[in-house]
């Protein structure tokens, strides 16, 4: 029985069905939540900087495809090679976002998880005028920014645009990244953080400073997003 269930979960038809349903559910969430933007002219600010690297926290990612509001906002998102990533990839592509498969981890598992190839593909995508979105966390360490996204900024020469999205109605899972499932019929907020530009000659000390800055601005943007939809800070932080 366990083997049959495992095979069903891995089957392409099941993954496509879950991805399709997830995409349509998220579309409903987007359409039935009234979103505010902070700053209000966030698109006017960032559009001259595109293509850019879009950074956000793991577990707070479900609404991120909807930052694309124009056909000219071409984007790709980094999604893991894990089985759960298949569902996310199918949903993202149905919502009009391209996918890059691999790991953003630049630690011991970087080569094993396809990180080198994914990193090169992200650099190429940015050079081809695609925005690239990825989570900033170190895998399995929620709200701790890694150096991978900073390295991408240095290699590509593109700015990092941190942001957070929140809805007033949600379910939060008790897992390592505090995955938040956004729900329809409420209020939403998109909050931009401080833009980070990595110098092409950034040394290890500068990289670490920018990593810490990214972590701080993402935490602040997340806190502000939840406050804007009426959630106290302690609720937002799980």
Describe this entry's structure for a reader.
It is a single chain. By secondary structure, the chain is an alpha/beta fold. The protein contains eight helices and eleven strands. The protein has helices at 2-10, 12-32, 42-46, 83-94, 115-127, 148-156, 204-228, 233-236; strands spanning 33-38, 53-56, 75-79, 98-101, 131-135, 137-138, 141-145, 160-167, 170-172, 180-182, 186-192. The strands form three sheets. Strands 1-11-8-2-5-3-4 form a seven-stranded mixed beta sheet, with helices on both faces. Strands 6-7 form a two-stranded antiparallel sheet. A two-stranded antiparallel sheet has the order 9-10. Helix 2 crosses helix 4.
Explain briefly what this protein structure is.
With 238 residues, the chain is an alpha/beta fold.
Shape: globular
Oligomer: single chain
Output mean pLDDT.
Answer: 89
* First-to-last CA distance: 36 Å
Radius of gyration: 17 Å
- Give the spatial strand order of the biggest sheet: 1-11-8-2-5-3-4
- Please provide the count of β strands: 11
The SS-based structural class is alpha/beta
Largest sheet features: 7 strands, mixed
- Count up the helices: 8
Fraction in helix: 40-55%
Low-confidence runs of at least 5 consecutive residues? 106-112
The proportion of residues in beta strands is 15-25%
Helix/strand order: HHEHEEHEHEEEHEEEEHH
Question: Could you list some keywords that capture this structure?
Answer:
238 residues; alpha/beta; seven-stranded mixed sheet; 8 helices; 22% strand; globular
């Amino acid at each position: 029985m366990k083997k049959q269930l495992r095979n069903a979960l891995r089957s392409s038809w099941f993954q496509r069905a879950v991805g399709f349903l997830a995409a349509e559910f998220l579309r409903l969430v987007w359409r039935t939540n009234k979103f505010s933007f902070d700053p209000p002219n966030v698109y006017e600010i960032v559009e001259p900087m595109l293509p850019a690297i879009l950074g956000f926290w793991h577990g707070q990612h479900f609404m991120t495809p909807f930052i694309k509001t124009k056909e000219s906002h071409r984007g790709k998102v980094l999604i893991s090679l894990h089985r759960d990533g298949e569902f996310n990839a199918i949903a993202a592509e149905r919502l009009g976002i391209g996918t890059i498969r691999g790991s953003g981890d630049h630690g011991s598992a970087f080569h094993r998880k396809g990180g080198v190839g994914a990193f090169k593909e992200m650099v190429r995508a940015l050079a081809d005028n695609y925005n690239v979105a990825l989570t900033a966390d170190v895998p399995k360490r929620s709200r701790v920014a890694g150096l991978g996204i900073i390295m991408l900024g240095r290699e590509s020469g593109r700015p990092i645009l941190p942001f957070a999205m929140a809805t007033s109605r949600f379910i939060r899972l008790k897992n390592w990244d505090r995955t938040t499932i956004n729900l329809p019929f409420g209020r939403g907020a998109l909050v931009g953080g401080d833009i980070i530009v990595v110098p092409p000659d950034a040394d290890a000390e500068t990289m670490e400073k920018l990593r810490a800055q990214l972590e701080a601005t993402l935490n602040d943007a997340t806190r502000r997003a939840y406050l804007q939809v009426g959630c106290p800070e302690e609720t937002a932080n799980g």
